[in-house]
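Bug: token stream looks shifted between consecutive jobs. Job 1:
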Amino acid sequence: MENTGNREAASLVACAVRLVLSQVEQHRMEIGELCDALRTIHAQLMNVSTHDVPPARAADSAAFLMCRECGKKMQLINNTHLRLHGLTVREYKRKWGVGLSQSLSSPALRRRRQRLAKQQGMGQGLAHWRAARSNARNGQSGQ
């Protein structure tokens, strides 16, 4: 339990640092101002109550993703939505530490798409092509 608290505290500190750095990018700040801003922002983040937010249920987390920019629950975080935040998919993933190969669709949506693709026979042509290529290579290597 204490490890979780340490991670949350470290996350709040990191968030406060990011906010202060964005302020520094806009205008020059003296060291004293920088320290005060960091303390103030960190204290305000510590005071934000998360007790009003109900815990996510497993069904909710599988059915939706939450946009880390605006907090909106979605099945798919796409280019159109990210453009509202002035981001590309690559920028969003880098900003929030999401792997570049990780999907921005919910697990439920991915499973539904996979089931539909199997029902429609998608991928069978590729399987036949691979088998034919493999057979052709095996036949050529014996000559």
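Job 2, same session, no restart:
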Amino acid sequence: MLSNFAVPKLKFLLLFCLVLNIFSIVQFKNTGCRSNDVSKNGTCYTNVECQNKGGISSGSCAGGFGVCCLFTVNSSPYTISENCTYIQNPSFPSVYSDTGAITYTINKCSSDVCQVRLDFVSFSTEAPAATTEVNGGACVDSFTATSTSGYITPNICGLNTNQHSNKAAKQPILMNAQWNISQGFVSL
């Protein structure tokens, strides 16, 4: 027979086990989420997953069971494999004035990804020297995205804020970049 003291302890132990069991089975998809910074989107992960992947927690998702994880890259060379990674020049938001290429490689995050979308959140490079040049105004500074299958986007230069570019994602994408770009994957 249980004593009056043992019954509350038993009830607490049962309740604790039930609560622990509920939390151990909570699962959610790693989908897009709105961060505390309303201008940025992230990916919903557990807090531990976000930290292990090198992200920064910025708000909650999945009914409070997850965190909206932000990924930002501002050094080169760097390989990106997280959806919705913000790619910024090394001195962002200041102007990057070094010469030479900055290279990023974007790998697909899953096998069902068919395209990489680059949203130019802010994008400004030196525009063509003159529009009256014989060759049509070649870019002084430029952005080029190259897939390893050999497809190269045309050079992009000048002011392209709020524009975007999609690339087929059969192979990793290589980028030479100097700006703030939000990268995301497009699934089938």
